[in-house]
Amino acid sequence: MIMSFSIIMLLGLGLVIFQIIKNQRLTRARNKIVISSLESSENITENYTKVSTRTESIIASGNRFLFLVRIFDEKGLGKFLFSLFLISMVMMADELLKLDLSSKDLMISCLIIIIAVIIIPGIVRKYIVNARIEKIERDMPLFVDLLAICVQSGLTIESSLKFLAENVGDINDNFVPFLDRLVKKIEVNGLEAGLTHLQKELPSREVSMLCVTLQQSLRYGSSIYEYLMELSSEMRELQLLKTEEIIGKLSAKMSIPLVLFFMFPVVIIIAAPGIMRVMSQG
């Protein structure tokens, strides 16, 4: 029993150490990427699905739960101690409740706990960040409409963005940290640099469309109000297409339980009397 527990602890410690080394390598790789991106040109790739660490840190600044999960996931010692606590609870439950678990069952339970503690925090982080980004994307047409109204009322683009950063929290508080950083970047380096920075920080197709529209207006001096209203309608059409795509996939998914739980029983009910009659005659 003690031997099995020791083996499990050594295996868990090895997994935690491996993840710490992996996180350190990823951190060094991210730092190299950031340095190279600062030295290179400011061309932005259209990879809207990849969420950077910077995006997650900005969202975590306004989400306490994500902040705690992120700290727990990046600290290998915390994972090791939490795994040790859960394993101790399992062994105490085995002794107090007289579960009579075998050494093999305990080893499997401990391995499941260790793997879950290592994997689940990363899955939770990814789910929360993607959910926040999707919520921002859903509210982008309304934000573009508000920006167009501000511009039409006589405000500049910079003043409009600053005004919305102060008042858009009632609509979507997840977008506020990005707008605050955008306003600060505009004050230091100008509007075009701030929009480029926003595209890097928030990997979203709708956000990229807005930034490109504003940048084209700056470069070519075109009227921004009509372009913003057209952009908001395009975003709503894209969201409608996404909804139609989900509905179209739903019918295909519903056919699986229909075949398994309806068609097969009906076939059996229809064919069973004939089969039983043939068997009785034979």
TrEMBL record:
Topology with regard to the membrane? Answer: Multi-pass membrane protein
Localization terms from the record: Cell membrane
Q: Which UniProt keywords apply?
A: Cell membrane, Membrane, Transmembrane, Transmembrane helix
For this protein, the parts annotated as crossing the membrane are 6-22, 76-94, 106-128, 256-276
Q: Which residues does the UniProt record annotate as the domain Type II secretion system protein GspF?
A: 143-270
Look up the domain of life of the source. Answer: Bacteria
Q: Give a Pfam family name.
A: T2SSF
Stated name of the protein: Type II secretion system (T2SS), F family protein
